[in-house]
Amino acid sequence: MNYIHAFTDPGTPERAVIGGKGLGLVRLAAAGVRVPPGFVVTTASYRDFVAENGLSEEIDGLVRDVDHEDAEALTAATRQIQERIASGALPGGLDERIAKAYSALGTGEEVYVAVRSSGTAEDMGDASFAGLYDSYLDIRGAEDVVDAVRRCWASLWTPRCAAYRKRLGFDHRDAEVAVVVQQMVAADTAGVLFTANPLTERTDEYVVNASWGLGESIASGIVTPDELILDAATLAVKRSTVGSKQWRIDRAAAGSGTSKTATTAQDAARRCLDDATAAELGAQGRRILELCEGIPQDIEWAVSDGELFILQSRDITGAGFLWEEDIESWQSAPDDEETVWSHTWAEAFWTGAVTPLFYSVRGRELRNSDERLFTLWGFDDLAKMRRFKYRRNTVYFSSDADRIYYRNLLPARLRKHSLDNLPPDWRDEAGAARFDPAKAARMYARVRALTTDHGPLRTIKSVYRFIDDRAAEANSPSAAELRLLSDHELRKEIASKIKLFEDYLTVLRPAFHVYATTAFAILRELLAAWYDGDNPYVFQDLISGLPKRTAMLQEQVDLWELAAELRRSSTVVALLEKSTNGAEFFAAVREEPAGADFCSRYDEFMAAHGHRGHQDRDLWYPRRSEDPDIDFQSLRSLVAADSPSPVDNEHRLVAKREEVTAEVIERIRAKPFGSIRAELFKAVLDYIHRFLVLRDDERPFADAITMGKKRAFVELGRRLYERKLIDDPDDFYHLAEYELYDLLDGRVSRRLVRAKVRNRRAVFDKFIARSEIPADYLRGNTPMEVDDGTDTGLEGTFAGVGMSRGSVTGTARIVGDLRDIGRVRRSEILVCNSTDPGWTPVFGLISGLILEAGGMLSHGACLSREYGLPAVNLPGAMQKIPDGATISVNGDTGRVSVVTEDD
């Protein structure tokens, strides 16, 4: 029987044979990674052991009917299984085979080995048994190795493992475990390397936890280790924190096992890993990441006598990596971790969920057009800045860039109206910043001298001319024509649409972000200074009821007239009322003679407006030409409500604007130099009206370009799905443009693509459901608590370190000993020193966790991420937080606040 597989044996057995841990080590050894030698006792040995000792039916009987929620009953049942394993006979001379493989690890002497369980379901996405099975360190002698193998088998039947399998719906009869036997490294320093950051979920930085002695001190959570954050690209240390490293675990002075000793004050106070060794470790991590197809790895390592060893590698579980840094790969400017980002811009201008695909395209279009404009204007500092950030299916805008932009563009008196993207506590200072009129004058002079498109009035004319000249390009080719293109031609078509939109933005944006911004600010100031009437809505009245019907208003009128056409036929109205969806109604009405006039008008409507009707800007949202329900629901509402025509409302608003405008001008004329003031006021208001008409007129053209891009990307997605490169037809929305091309060209792992799509889609669904609310501001990549001038009046706020994201408010339960775990009630927040696998059952009860010790790899941190619980490391937490208090825990910021001390 194939009971033993050495790391260096030819071939790579499946996970079902050597388990996840064994599979990782065999692959690393085969790739030439410096892995201590070892072998795996395969699952076949455990399976034959169970069969030859007649344990299958006995095990099944013991666990089948036991109440897994009854701790005492489950413990009693599993103890019987463990005792039978301890007393059973090994199959087929397995003890001799283990002894022979063990002796091959040494050179004439017995070596120390680690004996670790290697589960077949371990670390597979949703099921992470890591830390639940037992491991035994510094075992020496064949007899002790065999005994440790038995104990690893027995750990398959601890109460915590049985309960975990039950919770995940695993069949106990399928439970198997392999055992890894690996030569121990007498570590001077050891720890863990994450090839992505499990807390921030960033994949462009590595996280190192390190402590003196064996890595068991970190895994068991008895120390707070040193933490180093490495830049994934350069492997330089970005920042580091010296942990207390209170204890160290080393090989026992005699016999097998380990010893625990207090760390000296000198060693506790200094970092145990220098920059050079950290970079060497990072390089190994990068290599292992490539071997593992880009899936972030949790790597155990050790340094002994200056040599670095990799002890094992497994997929990081419990963290929903989104690879957002890959989505941002088009950015040319660095991502400064001190930059403050605002979500208010997206709430105003880029609403709804934003897919990776659309951001990777639209963000680049905006960046490229802005760089061209800023260079033209002489704003070189802004041209070099990163202005957009993608985070969890929404977009953030740089408050730092906005502060500079408006300081360059507007004097303080006008600037105060344009600072909404800044945190509230920035606005006074930003509004008062010195304005350089010479720099602004140079900007306007450069625009005048270097362009024919960008003057205040010329830019509006230029936009209309651009629309007229390029309309045909925006609306073609059709979906049928796209299907005839080769892959190369399809990519060229996408590139041409992107270039078209960039060019359009370069013409359009000065009107929006220079002239209109300035004009609106001037209008507000003129009203504040010159209008002495009692109309509190004067500003709104002046900019409503535009002097020309816009394209977007015409679309509303056309839709209303379609509803009016429907109401003329009771037969068609009846079809509308009894239909359950748009497809059913439009099919039925085309078969009904009374609906002929409506269908003719609707076809004209679709030809003009079929590319619109979507809820938000993203490609993902369906347009009316794609989803008949959009117009079906609108028409039902309009018919049922019998609403007045938009034309009537238009006339009312125009009349009101004209009335208010006349009143304001009359009051201004009555002031000193009134005629001059009135002419200035009319000029400003006229420009604003021209801009507002443009704003509505240009949107359908912009949407036509976007629809053209969507048709092309849908065709690309169809090809990817047809070629079985994606699993679902709409997976392509969750990949950036370049990721789609890498997939098409075979340059990327399918496993990595699946992971990206799965995790990104999960966050996208949360955003769509509004179950996850974006932070208002970020500093770097971290949600920022903004001082908005209010004082909560609460005392007892503590700054810890976040270990698992999210926030929760609940009752704090202080538990100093596992024997008191019964005090914890459902939805309470557990506060303790540290946890180990014995605490696992409580994670199904609690709503949050605060630990006094332990790094990112500690049991509590890992389980919190898996269960989706906010978790914070807060030294001295059990003394700082009263038992039974109501507390708030923020795993994003590390903040813990005592809300009330009442139990």
**Order of neighbouring strands in the sheet with most strands:** 19-26-25-21-22-23-24-20
Average residue pLDDT: 90
- The total of helices stands at 33
Q: Give a quick account of the main beta sheet: strands, pairing sense, barrel closure.
A: 8 strands, mixed
Tell me the overall shape. Answer: elongated
- Please, how many domains? 5
Q: Radius of gyration in whole Å, from Cα?
A: 34 Å
Q: How many β-strand stretches?
A: 26
| Share in helix | 40-55%
N-C termini distance: 61 Å
State the low-pLDDT regions, or none: 122-128, 788-794
Percentage of residues in strands: 5-15%
Sheet/helix structural class: alpha+beta
Indicate the topology.
Elements: E1 4-6, H1 15-30, E2 38-41, H2 43-52, H3 55-64, H4 71-87, H5 94-103, E3 112-119, E4 135-140, H6 142-155, H7 159-168, E5 177-183, E6 189-194, E7 205-212, H8 216-219, E8 226-231, E9 237-241, E10 247-251, E11 258-262, H9 265-269, H10 275-291, E12 297-304, E13 307-315, H11 324-327, E14 340-342, H12 344-349, H13 356-377, H14 380-383, E15 388-391, E16 394-398, H15 399-409, H16 412-415, H17 427-432, H18 437-450, H19 458-474, H20 479-483, H21 487-530, H22 538-542, H23 551-567, H24 570-578, H25 582-591, H26 596-609, H27 629-641, H28 646-669, H29 674-722, H30 737-744, H31 750-769, E17 777-779, E18 782-783, E19 797-799, E20 801-804, E21 807-814, E22 829-832, E23 848-851, H32 859-867, E24 871-873, H33 877-880, E25 886-890, E26 895-900
Parallel strand pairs: 21-22, 22-23, 23-24
Antiparallel strand pairs: 1-2, 2-5, 3-4, 3-5, 6-7, 6-12, 7-8, 8-9, 10-11, 12-13, 14-16, 14-17, 15-16, 17-18, 19-26, 20-24, 21-25, 25-26
